[in-house]
Design brief:
Elements (H helix, E strand, L loop, with lengths): L1 E7 L5 H15 L6 E7 L11 H9 L16 H4 L2 E4 L2 H8 L9 E3 L15 H4 L2 H24 L3
Length: about 160
């Protein structure tokens, strides 16, 4: 089983959107028995809450489920469980590094999946309100990530 964790600040906008989008793509490709996806935040303001209404609205628009998703914090055991830990911006990466176990883990930054994009961080729609732009970036990046996982982890089996 390949495990993917998306990380943002509060775990109610970007990372749950990425979790839902990638999970949907995995289900469409019938790979749910081989890849799991989760998301977490580095700040504790929203623990236990459902995704932000803007995230829910854009996911509903695209027919993507976010059922049973609740915000949680990145935990030390995540560094042992997840092969892919993908941060939405540099600040998230710095915060993950401060968690015991995080300093040694391999982190990816979401926008590295989209090297042709001018943006180098996924904008936080909690502050910008730009949920459509974030969805477009996440949708494109999740396509790249899924192909990467298939090539790196599943074709070797």
């Amino acid at each position: 089983m390949v495990n993917v964790l998306f990380v943002c600040l509060g775990n109610i906008c970007r990372s749950p959107m990425a979790e839902a989008v990638l999970r949907n793509k995995i289900e469409q490709r019938q790979l749910a028995d081989q890849i799991t996806v989760d998301s977490a935040g580095t700040g504790d303001w929203h623990i236990g809450k459902a995704p932000h209404e803007g995230t829910r609205r854009i996911l509903d628009l695209h027919g993507i489920s976010y059922e049973n998703m609740r915000a949680r914090l990145v935990a030390g055991e995540d560094f042992e469980k997840f092969e892919y830990i993908i941060c939405m911006d540099k600040s998230n990466g710095e915060n993950v590094r401060k968690i015991p176990g995080g300093e040694q883990s391999t982190l990816l930054f979401f926008m590295d999946l989209l090297p042709d994009e001018e943006l180098r961080e996924v904008p936080d729609p909690y502050f910008t309100g730009n949920f459509e732009q974030v969805y477009d970036l996440i949708n494109a990046g999740c396509d790249v990530l899924l192909e990467r996982i298939i090539q790196e982890k599943l074709q070797q089996a």
